[in-house]
Amino acid sequence: MHQSARDVKRAGKSIAFVPTMGFLHEGHLSLIREARRLADIVVVSMFVNPTQFGPGEDFEAYPRDPARDSELAENEDTDILFIPEKQDLYPPGYETYIIQENLPGHLCGISRPGHFTGVMTIVAKLFNIIKPHYAVFGEKDFQQLAVIRKMVSDLNFDVKIIGSPTVRETDGLAMSSRNKYLSSGQRSSALTLYRALCDAKEMTAKGETRADALIDAAVQTISAAPETSIDYVKICDPDTLEDVAVIDRPVLMGLAVKVGRTRLIDNTILQPGSRG
Ligand code: PAF
Q: Which domains, ranges and CATH numbers included, belong to the chain?
């Protein structure tokens, strides 16, 4: 990969990179299409990164289907598919990790300590190996995108980070490799995440400015559905991820909910409206 990246650069071509953990769905394919628009050469990586999973999380069970993934990526005109092995990236004795002080201490970082250190570490390693001009990340993982942008700025990586909108099923469920774990009953419960976000958007558009009123409504909607257990419902500043009490500017509403044993996340931007 190092050699291919050097050759591409020597030929004066640009590289757009899409990091994934495989088990591709339409959301990933939209990232690849965005990468295709941005640069001459598209590199897609597939690696289920062990360092971003905590003890008891789904690292072993994470869905994998490299043959199907390769076909899907090739259909999108991917130039280079990079599928490293664990021992290539984390050989015995590996001991270097990236820490960020503030952003990982919010939202998902609270119930997943160490997760963003694992994400930053693997993304930094992949940037060093692939040397991309652009890297495309989904906005569904809003906190991940914020953490990566900050890491790139703080550590002077020479790469432009592009956020790409969440892709949803026709009924609104945000696409995720983990949706595969849901039974049909759980899938109906999972729809309450999107419903709660849409209700909050409508309430703010009609003039509601109190974050606690919006959060209470979302909690009620989600907890009324069977098999849901809320990790967090938060309204926060999109840059700092600090809680916001009054919606007087665009803010982020983020949710993490377990449906059965599957942890799902979703988010939207709420715009303040005018009352009446
Ligand atoms: O978003 C993901 O799939 C992963 O967190 C990433 C960015 C590929 C790092 O392992």
A: 2-164 (3.40.50.620), 177-270 (3.30.1300.10)
